Amino acid sequence: MEYFYYSIVLALSVQFYYKLSMKKKIIVFTILLGGILACSIVNRDPARIHREAMVVDLHSDTVLRMVEEGFDFSGRDSSGHMDLPRLKEGGVDLQVFACWLDTNTPAEKCRATVDQLIDSLDAQLGRNPDKIEQCRTAADAERIIADGRIAAFYAIENGVAIESDLDNLQHFYDRGVRYMTLTHTASNDWCISSADTTPAFHGLTDFGRDVVLRMNELGMIVDISHAHPWAVDEVLKITTVPVIASHSCVHALCPHDRNLTDEQIKAIAGNGGVIGINFYTGYLSKEYNDLDNSFEAEHKTEIDSFTALYSDYGERRRAMKDIYAEFGRKVDSLGIDYNIILDHIDYIVELVGPDYVALGSDFDGVHRIPKGIDDCSMMPNITSGLVERGYSEKDIRKILGGNFIRVFQQVCNK
Ligand SMILES: [Zn+2]
């Protein structure tokens, strides 16, 4: 019926147009053309798209700073990548706060260590209820964001947290944890790490499989970032719901054990899952890794002597500041900027479509990030880049957050 009215309006307009003098015809035509151009510019305005989209970051390690450095995220603090003022400035609507723990944490202290991290995050949220609130479901997130506040999504990075006891999964679920990264840079008792070159078992043990199935039942998302390809295969074989790779990149563009092969990307897409692109230069750029390796080989003697002298990482970094400065200058000369993140997004979109890619910054967990995305306030640059590369607004909204919200709804809305 609508089309009927549209055709009458169009017919009357054409009749009216043809009755005008040539001069008036030119004026009306110019106004129309100007209007169409103005509308298309406004429609493609990256600032508006970013503001109206739900912007999600699938991974940050800022909680560790809260415990180790007494960091208060309510004020601006440029010594790290993230705080509340800069999250707001960057238009981030949902931020994942990962509670990370080292695989070498004594087994009996793992649960308590993660509890301490969650306590610290709870306390900071408690002091800023007008700015941020924990979300346990996608519906929570939507309510909090509609309110103009940031939704805080709690996660655990490293399955050692549960001390090989499924009751601890329930405990963390009850505290609001909604995803768990199964392992980290070293294998644990039940899941092999991507960095492990001598795996003791085939990806997951029987208990590891029980963990995945229990997470499915509870409504906690399984995160396969850091997991060995065998473990990823095992997870995808048994999971009944979509999984995520919260902070990983594309292996074909940057061969690194932390990145995903084409086959893995296809398998995650087949499972309906999502991959958050990591902002760490070492997972994004092959050139950077080549430079890193050659620089290290060149300065091996100096680096070895400093390593022998200083066992503390901080002290060693301070002592080696001249070497790091020289390395920094060489990295700068590579001219790597945020466009490299877009290259990884393009690759996944070309391989499997726009429904399976997202952003997983790893802010405050990595030491080198491309220019133009130096901290969380610069997230709008990603949107500008996607607009420049010709992505539709619909696809941009999916990549910025819609894809993750889909998985959040599917897995956690219990
Ligand atoms: Zn990580």
Structure in a nutshell:
This protein is of the alpha/beta class and 414 residues long.
- The top-level CATH class is Alpha Beta
The CATH topology name reads: TIM Barrel
| Mass-distribution shape | globular
Taken together, the total number of domains comes to 1
Question: On the 0-100 scale, what is the average pLDDT?
Answer: 93
Descriptive report:
The structure is a single chain. The chain has a single domain (53-285, 336-412), classed as TIM Barrel. It contains 19 helices and 9 strands. It has helices at residues 2-19, 22-43, 46-52, 62-68, 84-89, 110-126, 138-146, 166-174, 206-218, 229-238, 262-270, 281-284, 286-298, 300-309, 313-319, 321-334, 339-352, 380-388, 393-412; strands spanning 56-57, 94-100, 132-134, 150-157, 177-181, 221-223, 244-245, 274-277, 357-359. Strand 3, helix 7 (138-146) and strand 4 form a beta-alpha-beta unit. The longest helix is centred in the N-terminal third of the chain and has 22 residues, at 22-43. With 414 residues, the chain is an alpha/beta fold. Strands 1, 2, 3, 4, 5 and 6 form a 6-stranded parallel sheet that branches. The chain has a 3-stranded parallel sheet with strand order 7-8-9. Helix 8 packs parallel to helix 9 (206-218). The mean pLDDT is 93. The site of zinc ion (ZN) has 4 residues, from loops.
